[in-house]
Amino acid sequence: MSNNLSRYDFAAIEEKWRTRWLTAKTWKVTVDPNRQKYYVLEMFPYPSGRIHMGHVRNYTIGDVVARYRRMRGDNVIHPMGWDAFGLPAENAAIKNDTHPAKWTFENIDYMRGQLQRLGLSYDWDRELATCKTDYYRWEQLFFLKMYEKGLAYRKKTTVNWCEPCQTVLANEQVINGTCWRCDTLVTPREMQGWFLKITAYAEELLAGCDQLPGWPEKVLTMQRNWIGKSLGAEIEFPVEGRADKLTIFTTRPDTIFGATFMSLAPEHPLVTQLSRGTEQEAAVADFVKRTVAARRRLKPGEEPEKEGVFTGGYCLNPFTGTRLPIYAANFVLMEYGTGAVMAVPAHDQRDFEFATLYRLPIVPVVLPEGAELTAETMTQAHEGPGNLSDSGEFTGLDWEEAKAAITRRAEEQGFGRARTTYRLRDWGISRQRYWGTPIPVIHCQKCGIQPVPEADLPVELPTDVKIDKSGKSPLHTLESFIRTTCPACGGPARRETDTFDTFMESSWYFARYACPDFHDGPLGRDQVDYWLPVDQYIGGVEHAILHLLYSRFFTRVLRDLGYLGIDEPFTNLLTQGMVIKDGSKMSKSKGNVVDPSELIARFGADTVRLFSLFAAPPERDLEWNDQGVEGAFRFLSRIQRFVGDHLELLRRADDALPATLSETDRALHRKTHQTIRKVGRDLESDFHFNTAISAVMELTNTLFALTAPESKETPQPPLVRRAVEAILTLLFPMVPHLTAELWEVTGHDRELDAIPWPEYDPEAAKDEEITVVIQVKGKVRGRLQVAPGTAEDELRQLALADDKVKGFIGEAPIRKVIVVPDKLVNIVI
Ligand code: ANZ
Ligand code: ZN
CA angle at residue 711 from 706 to 712, to 5 degrees? Predict the structure, then answer.
């Protein structure tokens, strides 16, 4: 690299610095108890083949945080790795007649190169790939420990089954209810599967949401809703002609006198039992079959058209003895509460619609203050508060009192109890796939399920397999894998062929990054205790529920197993927005992708980084625009040209400030320190990179204007040098290569990477005051001395509080106050 700066030769500059940093392992870190640690982490990518603009944005944000914290003096850990198991590798293997492992590792190599081209400051010695045995072996150990504690168990579960393909489909392989490969309608099938008892941590995971002030409120809300805690009661209704009772869960025991029928989930066992032998039998059977199939076709959150069928059976209200018909209804879920609902149409909108549809009675029992409620005049359910009516001894009570009183009475009478339910379900982790972590258990005909002994771990995923076109996991037929001996009786036994849900791998990778060289166990306590928790986590909002919840769950399980000493894995969370082009998210199917590699080749990594930071604040969507990229490129070109043009001056300039400063000197000095203050605040508090960059652009403009040949008076060299130094250091986290180069050529011997973040001088940054005129009815009546940029609100208040101005307003009502910042306040009376 020559010091010929006549042209912005980004390719040469970037290569030089990239190579230097990678060779020197500039970002390698080790535990240092005497230094403040800072852990910044971006969600690791699936090695799909190439990085996309979403990755560029995510990783650039993380990189700025990492570089900024380093300049602030923190011991920064900034790792990167690969979420390398998963279905796309199997699909690609079929399509390209290759092996998932080969495809995955080739992608990793390619994508690592792409990330390095971006100049991202990772400690590559911590890199991991979850498909490697030395990673997933520890996950198998966690599973065994959880199994021992009863946190991992097996139960029957319903899966998506494709008959022609003879395979289980993952949810994302079911498109509109049909198989993605052969278009046949998918059918539900009962199968044994492994589950992790995340529900055992439901309460703690919920309470933890209140201890995460560094998370976006919307993500916490999603977490809380997903856990979905409901306080209510369980009440038993005797079923006519049967010994067993029907147990319902309700959050509104206060409405029990208004129950007019019962609704059961189609899968509820009573549905078929009650209809058996009645004239409803055929209709019920048909309904159950249809609704269960239809439900699988619903997208998450979508509600079906309400539909139901009378089962032929009745039960009795335990408080009144009233006979209530039992229906099966498609909006009742088997997995929630008890799968049975007492229907109160007057006070529950779903029940109201259902009752209207099937002409069932509506009995209002909770009356809003001062209002009449009658079945005839109601057009919708009254779900809000009120006082009880027609409710026997509870009549007249406020609804909250009634909830408690009715629950208590049910408890005393022995047919009910207070109960809390959670919407959260245990986590089904079995996948009938090949490219994943083998679940370490053995099935023995004699002894049943036997965990693989710890000493026999890892159960390695065999790689000498051929993925065939059927899409079936080759594990199911691979005798060399399946055949084993029972650890209990030593007899012949078979290995489990299910593999883990790949969310397992991403639930603890952040901890493994802390101790890549530790091989005596999953986590080296000294290292994880020093580095964890992650101080700043950054990723897409699409992971706001599952990945984050699973990671929070795993962290607690690992804590309880003694591997970790923290409760929460991520102290602060930033969910960055999407990259949009032509109105929709950049995606292959939309054909609107911009390839980062092409952009880097054309403009350089610094420009791509700068644009992705400048175009929008991180949490918002970023609208792609080509002019913006060119603008970023021009800005960097101008900086480099300026340095090139003033090289001699910059190198020679004194470090010390001149004894006397001219007005121009002071203007540049002030702007320099104000910019340092502004950028520091923007990076420190809410990562407003876009406004930080704007501020540096302003400083650059000021510098150019004052030093232009036509400028009346140019600043002295030390001030020019300080302004340039500020520009370079402030931009360094965002635009590392060019700034490092210019720093070096302007005669600094310490690398910019080792330079502390600049401090601003409050005295120098102080604004000079300006005069703002106050007008009343269009006439100048007063003047304010304020700092430039004083907020409109403040100007308005100052103007209205001015004694002279008050005199001119007198008693007249103020119609309007027009504020022109930095200029005038106009009061219309
Ligand atoms: C009677 C009642 C009266 C209800 C009323 C509501 C209002 P959350 O708050 O979401 O927990 N429910 C119970 N189990 C259900 C299931 N498996 N599928 C569908 N709905 C179910 O909702 C609890 C309420 O949803 C329960 O309280 C029950 O209806 C219904 F004026 O019971 B409620
Ligand atoms: Zn056995």
Answer: 115
Per-residue burial over 387-403, b if 16 or more Cβ lie within 10 Å, else e, is bbbebeebeebebeebb
Q: Which of 758, 778, 764, 667 is nearest to 720 (CA)?
A: 667
Residue 200 pLDDT exceeds 90 = yes
Please tell me the distance from the alpha carbon of residue 653 to that of residue 707, in angstroms, as a whole number.
15
For 393, list phi and psi in degrees, rounded to 5.
-65, -15
Spatial CB neighbours of 458, under 8 Å, sequence gap ≥ 6: 133, 136, 137, 140, 440
pLDDT at 2 over 50: no
Residue 135 neighbours by CB under 8 Å, 6+ apart? 128, 129, 505, 509, 512
Cis status of the peptide bond prior to 533, with omega within 30 of 0: yes
Query: What average pLDDT does this structure show over 485-501?
Result: 96
DSSP-based three-state secondary structure for 80 = coil
Rounded to the nearest whole angstrom, what is the distance from the C-alpha of residue 342 to the centroid of ligand 1?
8
Using CB atoms within 10 Å of the CB of residue 135, give its burial: 0 to 12 exposed, 13 to 18 middle, 19+ buried: buried
Distance 149 CA to ligand 1 centre (A): 33
Q: Which residue's CA is the closest to the ligand 1 atom numbered 8? A: 230
Our answer on whether the CB atom of 495 is closer than 6 Å to any ligand 1 atom is: no
Calculate how far, in angstroms, residue 407's C-alpha sits from the geometric centre of ligand 1.
15
Would you say the CB of residue 347 lies under 6 angstroms from ligand 1? Answer: yes
Among the bound ligands, the one closest to the CA of 258: 1
pLDDT, residue 300, reads 58
Q: In the structure, what pLDDT confidence band is assigned to residue 159 with cuts at 50, 70 and 90? A: confident
Q: Is 222 or 803 the better-scoring residue by pLDDT?
A: 222
β-bridge mates for residue 387, sequence order: 367, 398
The kind and range of the H/E element at 342 are strand 340-343
- Assess whether pLDDT exceeds 70 at residue 651: yes
**Counting every residue, how long is the chain?**
829
Q: Provide the H-helix boundaries in 460-562.
A: 479-482, 509-512, 525-531, 546-560
* Residue whose CA is at the smallest distance from ligand 1 atom 19: 332
pLDDT tens string 16-65: 999 999 999 999 999 999 999 999 999 999 999 999 999 999 999 999 99
| CB within 8 Å of 153: residues ≥ 6 apart | 147, 194, 195, 197
Domains (range + CATH), the chain: 230-421 (3.90.740.10), 596-765 (1.10.730.10), 770-828 (3.10.20.590)
DSSP H or E segment with residue 174: strand 174-175
Q: How far is the CA of 71 from the centre of ligand 1 (A)?
A: 55
In the reported structure, the alpha carbon of residue 230 is separated from the centroid of ligand 1 by a whole-number distance in angstroms of 9
Helix axis angle, 663-684 relative to 717-731, nearest 10°?
Answer: 10
- Token digits of residue 405: 């009183």
DSSP E strands, 679-748: none
| Atom 22 (ligand 1) nearest CA | 251
Does the CB atom of residue 348 touch ligand 1 within 6 A? yes
The pLDDT value given to residue 5: 64
255 closest CA partner among 319, 320, 382, 344: 344
Instruction: Choose which residue among 234, 248, 252 to substitute to test ligand 1 binding: the one with the highest number of ligand atoms within 8 A of its C-beta.
Output: 252
CA–CA separation, 825 and 805 (whole Å): 11
Look over the chain and give the mean of its residue pLDDT values, rounded to a whole number.
93
Nearest to 253 by CA among 271, 239, 234: 234
> CA–CA separation, 582 vs 592, rounded Å?
7
**Cβ neighbours, 10 Å, residue 353:** 16
Q: Is the pLDDT of residue 568 over 60?
A: yes
CB of 260 within 6 A of ligand 1: the answer is: no
Is 350 exposed, middle or buried, given 0-12, 13-18 or 19+ CB atoms closer than 10 A?
Answer: middle
